[in-house]
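Appendix B. Raw example, untouched.
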Amino acid sequence: MFTGIDEVDWAGLRHAYGSAKDVPGLLRGLASADAAEREAALDGMYGSVHHQGNVYDSTLACVPFLFALASRTEVQDRGAIVELLVSIGAESAGPRARAAVRAGAGAFVSLADDPCPAVRRAAAGALVRFLDEPDRVLTLLRRRMLVERDEPVLLALTEALGLFVRCRPAQAAAAVDLLAVQSGPPYAPGARLAALGQLGLGAPERLPADLVPTAVRLLRERSERRTAGPDRVDADTLVGRIRRLRPSDEEGSCLLRTLHRALDDRVADRIALLVGQLSSPDPMDRCNAVWMSAGLFRGWRADFSAPVSLIGRQLGREQDQLRDAAVSVLAELFGLAAPAADELHALVTVRPDLWVHTWERGRPSLGGPLKALARSGDPRAVPALSQLLARPVVPGGLGFEIVHLGPAAVPLAPALRHRLGQVDPDSPEAAESAAPLLAAVTALRDPAAVPEVLRLLRGAPDGLGAREALVGQAVRTLDALGASARAAAPVLRGLLDTRHAALAAGALWSAEGDVAAVLPVLLREPTHGRGRSARTAAGQLGRLGAGARDALPALRRLAAADRVWERTAAAQALWRIDGDPEPVLPVFRTAWSENPYTRGAIAECLAGMGPAGAPLRDLLTTELACSRRHMGRPGGYGSHDIAQDERLLANCRRALASQ
């Protein structure tokens, strides 16, 4: 297995953490008779040699030895070794890595018939990915499917057939026929679901007309046949932690995830499928459905009240994993979680121990059920939040969630002021502690909070970083408090020559209403400022209305700037000052197409323009007709993306109604 391993200059090769001199030990560890040593070695391979999917010169040097290990039947856990080889040869890893694995691809032929099911399962897809003989690959898959009796391996073979259809369209017809046959009786429910998913990805025209009811029926038949496996004990390694994060029924999760991916923009069908999953008698099926619903809610627009209501019903179940999954999804829905609000309130009422989540390290945070209830805007969250504000330690971020309750949170104002009074402005954590409280005070526009906000502003220590953040937060709050913050005017004037000039000028105008006192400061920013400061100044100038007409030339120049956010802010200000849509609408149209994240601000402005915004009606109607959300971030999503997208849609409707 290790012939020639000592002839490799491992010390001269590199991996994620420097010299690869430890790699021979990892390779030998993969062949160990001790399970813990094998696990640690695999952990080391993924943690350094193939760190985060990257490939180094040491990774390439490992490939021949990994093939040798995978081919020796006396080596245990060889399925994991084959999976590692497949990952190393992935297209995303680069052409050199792919070529290195393809050079040994003949080994996957014998591994596809290996006595170990885990090896056969990993080798199935490897045949399609790396063996450049399509006819031979299809023959091998067909033959293996006829004799395979292990269901997970059969599912892997089905997935490999689907991959073949997508990668080899010229030779796909026979593979599609195989999938179509497997999607019907007498195959087992899991195998049929797998075939339907792969048909959906590669040959959707071959899907049955009654796909959703068929899939739901097969799911329940599969659940009835499923037997509980042994309790899984995973080592405390990177690989072990990843395994613990997987669903209890990972196979079922994969089957339905594939089907959802195949349905893609058929949102009504996906909702119906979710409703079927969430109505299953089997808690594992429901848990898988809850997690899959997150992707649908995040990426698409529709009436989700039916699945959300069913997710709410999972909150009363005894299974902790199912309840926690439901809470996690509902907490990201904000107003869309309203159909589950009764169940959230019931859980908050009977489980006060869930009001706070305590981490091993760091400050406790607001518990998921109470967070979801507050974010949905339900006033029934107020009593629990009031009790938390009275505790010695307030959960981090609590104030940010109070914002979503609107006027219903007014009874919390005294407690918020009290908590603000306990923030030490000299503390390194002052900005972090004050930010959520100031956000809540801003939302409530509590005039009685001015002394405490002013105390923080005056007491913020010199220097960048924490002081700058705290000053900015406090000034924004004073701005929202308007004339009630008149006592802060001297302090705000002292900030007019700082990096907070635009913010301070806006707050000063809110407090005193003196355009002449702030206009020179705001005129300076669009001319000499860049980026955020110029945008902030444009926004403040727009608030001054006709009193800021002297800023029109500078704003017109800013409306022609390179950066789309500066152009958008300038165009908004031009409308609010001059009321002329002609120079504004072309900027809005261009920005709308150039950057979807500008659409929220543009739609809000159009909602206030009334008939003057009618030439952009087509943008609004197209947006409302689009079923896909634009606001999600590539490769992930922010916790407020759904809320921002729903706000965009609401503003589009308001704008159309005003025209």
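End of appendix B.
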